Automatic annotation (TrEMBL):
Forms a ring-shaped head-to-tail homodimer around DNA. It is found in: Cytoplasm. Residues 1-119 form the DNA polymerase III beta sliding clamp N-terminal domain. The lineage of its organism: Bacteria, Bacillati, Actinomycetota, Actinomycetes, Kitasatosporales. Residues 128-245 form the DNA polymerase III beta sliding clamp central domain. It comes from Streptomyces lutosisoli. The gene is dnaN. This is Beta sliding clamp. It comes from the Bacteria. Keywords: Cytoplasm, DNA replication, DNA-binding, DNA-directed DNA polymerase, Nucleotidyltransferase, Transferase. InterPro entries: DNA_clamp_sf, DNA_polIII_beta, DNA_polIII_beta_C, DNA_polIII_beta_cen, DNA_polIII_beta_N. GO terms for molecular function: DNA-directed DNA polymerase activity.
Amino acid sequence: MKLRIEHGPFAAAVADAARALPARPPVPVLAALKLTAENDTLTAAGFDYEVSGQASAPADVTEPGTVLVSGRLLADITRILKGKQPIDLQLEGARLTLVSGPTRYTLHTLPLEEYPSLPKLAEPSGTLSGSELAEAVAQVSTAAGRDDTLPVLTGIQLDLCDGKLTLAATDRYRFAVRTLNWDAAEGTADAAKVLIPAKGLMDTVKMLTDADRISVTLPGLSGVLGLSAPSRATTMRAIDGELPKYREIWPKHDSFNATALIDTSELVAAVKRVALVAGRNQPIQLAFTDGSLSLQAGTADDAQAVDVLDAQFQAGEDFTIAFNPTFLLDGLTALAAPATAFWFTEKTKPALLTGADAGADISHLGIDDDALQYLLMPIRPSA
């Protein structure tokens, strides 16, 4: 192998492929990146049997070839190199030399025969926007569980139905759902469902954010999801199982008997102020009245805090409900909207949070079924 490549594209390709490297590789070879030079292209690939990542960049290839080198070390080297000088790579026996201007590295290589074969994908099932997918994954991952003893709840479910792709996640205390437009490939199924590890999906879609369109290969018998763009590709192994059927538990639009609309930044700041006195697992109480929202936390035997905000409120009578402050802040952050709408049925049943435009009027408020919806379970305050 012998080639010359520009620093910027090479560093980006290495960084993206390194997202697939395991934190604790079970065998040394899985800590390596596979570099393949051919057809004036250098491709970097990482794989840990669960997630794979491939990223390519144009290169002036003098001698084609393939080599395995330490992925973390190569990523650190390409990140720390300064200037815009091109990089020369050359394989000399069992060593790979990397030269950039006056800087030279000699890297140990690993045996290629020990590296597993990367997954091969079938034809794409459809395409969607790269930026929209990355945004949706970031939003719904907020609600994904972190307990590895309940693997199903650590995933993001992709549900293809009626020409749209819906992403959903839950940890049993909140449920986040976001729907995206989907351009199906000819001859593919119009319904499918797959559960993908949230952390892996979050990491890998970052390399595809800038792509106008992403090709999606839904799992078949292989149980592997594939995402690809012109110079980037990733695969992820699905989790066995599926999330609770959220469409059956989701409140109907005509079931809400109270609605509130509050400026998001003001609400976030107030929740953070009041939460300072909330002990572990203690909720924040939200009391809505005509024109205002009162937030309260703490107990009579300890510190207490009260804050009051302006709020639009529409209901037959005052309404009080309590939430875990961390889960509430997570939802407000994920919505990332100038204003937040709360949709209530009963104070003991989950509330629905949706985003709204600045200056929105509560009397003309509606729910966009494609935008992020965050369903949050209330907490019964202790006596």
